[in-house]
Amino acid sequence: MAKRIFSGIQPSGIIHIGNYLGAIKQWVELQNNPPTGEDEAIFCIVDLHAITVRQNPEQLRKNTLSAAAWYIACGINPQKSDIFIQSTRPEHTELAWILSCYTQIGELARMTQYKEKTQKLQNDLGDTGFIVKAAPSAGLLTYPTLMAADILLYQTTTVPVGEDQVQHVELTRDIAKRFNNLYGQTFTIPDYSTKISGKRIMALDDPSKKMSKSAASEYNYMALSDSPEKIRQKIRKAVTDSGTQVKYEKDQPAISNLLNIHSEISGKEVAELEDEFSSKNYGEFKEALADTIISHLAPIQSKYNSLMQSPTELEKILKAGSEKVASTAQKTLSDVKTKIGLLNL
Ligand code: TYM
Questions:
Q1: Whose CA is nearest to atom 20 of ligand 1?
Q2: Ligand 1, closest atom to CA 147?
Q3: What CATH class has 4-194+311-340?
Q4: pTM to 2 decimals?
Q5: What is the mean pLDDT of each run of 10 residues along the chain (345 residues)?
């Protein structure tokens, strides 16, 4: 069977090293060493998912182009992979509606991300510092059916995502199986691939929470765009545990997270790093970690800056990507419509 890879990121502000290590870095590896039988890798900028929470329109437009620039700067090659913007392919919302009629409200309400985002909305501090309770939108609830549409439209076999998105891919599999059972083989059942074997990149200021772009404090995350000074400052400020040894331990989540980040960026095994820093203290390890991040991000940042000088070039790449994936999306949608009894005139 032909293999097709599909993944995406929301253009809702900065892209951080959690997105990079959890997703983009594995995309680049899959693109450059394609699994046997792979015939296409598709990387989407999921702007329709971003609007499930309020966005500033001007900023969203900027963030969408900026996400494309980060994809390419990190190593996604538009000659090898298709990059496009979700909202430029209407098949996504059309299939999402159809799939929402085959998904139970209970399944959607059980999603961890839905629960977390709803909770956050209800506890958000407004500009005045008072708690402003905002009701979650229907879009926030049906978010996973749009994600299922993204994946299933392209008969995707592999979805490289960070661990926090696995639950959504599992729901996608359930929806696809349910549909296939009712109407016969229609969708490929996708598999997820989490390279960092379930390890989330945790927040620098609180290792019990995942690193997140919607965090209240910028000391939660390391943005791909952070300057060398900022990177050093954020790593110095990152919380550490009560111990003193640079060791990966369950009850030492802060240093374990920093070791994990170092290992993912430098390519060294955690055990090798523990050895290297066995006689060093947290402060010395942090300086070395900051150096590693700074030198890894420098060429990516410089490529990003030069890509952002030519927004029309980026737009051309995104248009070409959207045209390239059109026929697969249209074919799947047309098959679905026929099967469920819609007149495909
Ligand atoms: P998003 O935009 O929240 O995150 C993009 C990718 O980054 C991963 N990620 C992390 N990995 C490790 N540690 C972290 N702290 C961390 N934070 C984020 C996410 O797992 C994800 O892979 N719903 C998706 C976007 C989406 C999608 C899709 C993905 C829409 N349609 C179809 C795959 C296929 C999301 O919100 O990702």
A1: 162
A2: 31
A3: alpha beta
A4: 0.94
A5: 91 93 93 86 97 93 97 98 98 98 97 90 61 78 98 96 93 98 98 68 95 90 98 97 90 95 95 96 97 98 98 98 98 98 92
